[in-house]
Design a protein that fits this description.
92 residues, Methane Monooxygenase Hydroxylase, Chain G, domain 1, mainly alpha
């Protein structure tokens, strides 16, 4: 357990930051999951809107250092690829 005043303050700061980071990470996961479900259901227009929210949230999380920028980029790429694939299958 922390003994010094500065260590106790650091614990309080870390708890606040962890909670804030969790909110961004959770929101990103939620939008990605929502987008994937809409793609599976064939609701591509709704999936497009949901994907934009997911991309925005991932970019924000990467900008704030909550997730690595390459991690955000990889996740965005995967949902965009899935949406493009679904659109191609819908056309044919």
């Amino acid at each position: 357990m922390a003994n010094t005043k500065s260590a106790k303050k650091r614990i309080r700061q870390n708890a606040k930051r962890r909670e804030r980071n969790r909110q961004y990470r959770s929101a990103a996961r939620t939008y990605i999951k929502k987008t994937r479900n809409l793609i599976e259901e064939g609701k591509l227009d709704e999936a497009e809107a949901s994907m934009q929210q997911a991309v925005s949230t991932l970019d924000k999380a990467a900008r704030k250092g909550i997730i690595h920028k390459n991690n955000a980029s990889r996740r965005k790429s995967r949902i965009m690829t899935a949406l493009a694939k679904a659109r191609a299958e819908a056309k044919s």
